[in-house]
C-alpha cells in the first residue's frame, strides 16, 4: 500500500486526470439538464451518479495491475506473499475510489442539486459501492494483466460482474433519495456487505494461483 501511495503521489497527473474526468462528466450533465432550464428528475439523478462512479472506478482501478511491468511483478514475487499483494491493492483502490466518489458527489450535488433526504444512508451506500467496485475490479485487473488485450478483457469481464452490485446500489440510493429509514434498506445493505466479503475472500484464495501463472 505504501508503494502504491508513493507511486500515485509521484504520478499526480494520473490522479488529476481522474478528477478531471469526474468534473467534466458532471459538467456535461449540467449542460444537458440544468443549463437548459430543465430540472433533473430524481431517478435520472440517481442513475447518472452511479454511471459516473462506475466508469470512474473502471478507469481508476484498471491501472492497478496493468501498469506493473513483468519484471516488477517478478521482483514482488521474491519479496512478499501473493495474498499481501491482492489485499493491499484492494484496500488502496477502495480508499482511492472512496475519495473520488465523495469528491464526485460533492461536485455533483453543487452543480445538479442534492435531492438526498437520508444522507447517512446514501453515504454508507457509497462506501459499500466503493469497496465493492474496488474488490471486484482489482481481481479482474489481475486476471486481465495476464492476457494480451488486457484493456478489452478488463471491460468484458468487469461489467457483467458489476451489474448485480450496481442494481443493489441504485436501489439503496433510491431509498435514501426518498428519505426512507435504514430498516427499509437493511436486506440490500447486508447483501452488499456479503458480496464484498465473498469477492475479497475469493480474491484472497484464488490470487495465489493467478500469481504463479
Describe the structure.
By secondary structure, the chain is mostly helical. It contains 9 helices and no strands. The protein has helices spanning 2-10, 12-32, 42-61, 63-66, 70-79, 82-112, 119-144, 150-178, 186-212. Helix 2 packs parallel to helix 6 (82-112). It is globular, with a radius of gyration of 18 Å.
Task: Please outline what is shown here.
By secondary structure, the chain is mainly α.
How much of the sequence lies in strands comes to under 5%
Number of strands: 0
Unreliably modeled segments: none
Name the shape in a single word. Answer: globular
Mean pLDDT across all residues, rounded? Answer: 82
Radius of gyration: 18 Å
* Class derived from helix and strand content: mainly alpha
Order of helices and strands: HHHHHHHHH
Major sheet? none
Fraction of residues in helix: over 70%
- Helical element count? 9
What is the CA-CA span between the terminal residues? 23 Å
Subcellular location: Membrane
Pfam family, one: CcmB
Keywords: Membrane, Transmembrane, Transmembrane helix
Transmembrane segments: 12-35, 47-66, 90-110, 122-145, 152-170, 190-211
Amino acid at each position: 500500500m505504501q508503494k502504491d501511495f508513493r507511486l500515485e503521489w509521484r504520478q499526480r497527473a494520473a490522479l488529476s486526470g481522474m478528477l478531471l474526468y469526474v468534473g467534466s462528466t458532471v459538467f456535461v450533465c449540467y449542460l444537458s439538464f440544468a443549463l437548459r432550464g430543465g430540472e433533473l428528475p430524481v431517478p435520472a439523478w440517481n442513475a447518472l451518479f452511479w454511471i459516473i462512479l462506475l466508469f470512474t472506478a473502471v478507469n481508476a482501478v484498471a491501472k492497478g495491475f496493468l501498469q506493473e511491468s513483468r519484471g516488477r511483478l517478478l521482483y514482488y514475487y521474491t519479496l512478499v506473499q501473493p495474498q499481501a499483494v491482492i489485499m493491499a491493492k484492494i484496500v488502496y483502490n477502495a480508499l482511492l475510489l472512496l475519495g473520488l466518489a465523495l469528491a464526485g458527489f460533492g461536485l455533483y450535488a453543487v452543480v445538479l442539486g442534492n435531492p438526498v433526504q437520508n444522507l447517512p444512508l446514501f453515504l454508507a451506500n457509497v462506501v459499500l459501492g466503493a469497496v465493492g467496485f474496488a474488490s471486484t475490479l482489482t481481481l479482474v485487473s489481475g486476471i486481465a494483466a495476464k492476457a494480451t488485450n488486457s484493456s478489452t478483457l478488463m471491460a468484458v469481464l468487469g461489467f457483467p460482474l458489476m451489474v448485480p452490485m450496481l442494481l443493489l446500489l441504485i436501489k439503496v440510493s433510491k431509498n435514501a433519495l426518498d428519505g426512507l429509514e435504514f430498516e427499509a434498506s437493511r436486506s440490500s445493505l447486508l447483501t452488499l456487505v456479503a458480496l464484498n466479503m465473498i469477492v475479497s475472500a475469493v480474491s484472497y484464495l484464488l490470487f495465489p494461483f493467478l500469481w504463479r501463472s
